Amino acid sequence: ECAAEEPRVLCIIQDTTNSKTVNERVTLNLPASTPLKRLFEDVAAKVGYVNGSFDLLWSNGDNVTDTTPIDQNSDKTILDAGFEPGKKNFLHLTDKDGEQPHVMQEESGATEDGAQERFIGPLPREGSIGCTHDYVSQSYSYSSVLSKSETGYVGLVNQAMTCYLNSLLQTLFMTPEFRNALYKWEFEESEEDPERSIPYQLQRLFVLLQTSKKRAI
């Protein structure tokens, strides 16, 4: 009950360390009592960087407003550190000491699982050329280091304001009649390019939503 009544702090983090991530935003909705240490841990897990290898700076959404990094080792809560509940708190994720953040290494066996997931689902006919890069994007590699949710469900990464499309895809996936009908459909590669075939790619996406060990794909 106390947790439910506690104010929440919305943190919007922009990764400015390279051109591929500069237009992306990571959003965290944290209890006001969250320690600064935990904020950095959550950000690191979210973006797939080694904790302690990056800095967080205050911003207004576009530009840095305070060049002094937030103290990761402080015992303060985010509320005591100046974060405001009920408002958008913008942060820039930047290089630390002139070095780019270290990317978190995937756990052993992750490569094997990843390879399996890339080929899972309806495969091209024997002898045909298949897609080996389905749903593997370097821009969103952080999803591969997060384990599957305890609920057993797999999410979809928001690729810059695609929440409306993600909601539709999840709704279609959770409709058994639609999902099963799609699984029965067979792809004929001789008639269509697999990369441009919407039902074929939808098949593969649904299989990943059903079997992936990741939290989001």
UniProtKB/TrEMBL annotation:
One record GO biological process: protein deubiquitination
Q: Where is the USP domain?
A: 154-217
A matching Pfam family:
Ubiquitin_USP47_N
Q: What GO MF annotations does this protein's record show?
A: cysteine-type deubiquitinase activity
* Matching PROSITE patterns: USP_1, USP_3
Keyword Acyltransferase assigned: no
Write the record's keywords in alphabetical order, separated by commas. Hydrolase
Its Gene Ontology cellular component terms are: cytosol; nucleus
InterPro entries for the chain:
Papain-like_cys_pep_sf, Peptidase_C19, Peptidase_C19_UCH, USP, USP_CS
In its keyword annotation, does this UniProt entry include Hydrolase? Answer: yes
Q: What is this protein called?
A: UBP47 hydrolase
Organism classification: Eukaryota, Metazoa, Chordata, Craniata, Vertebrata
Gene name of the encoded protein: Usp47
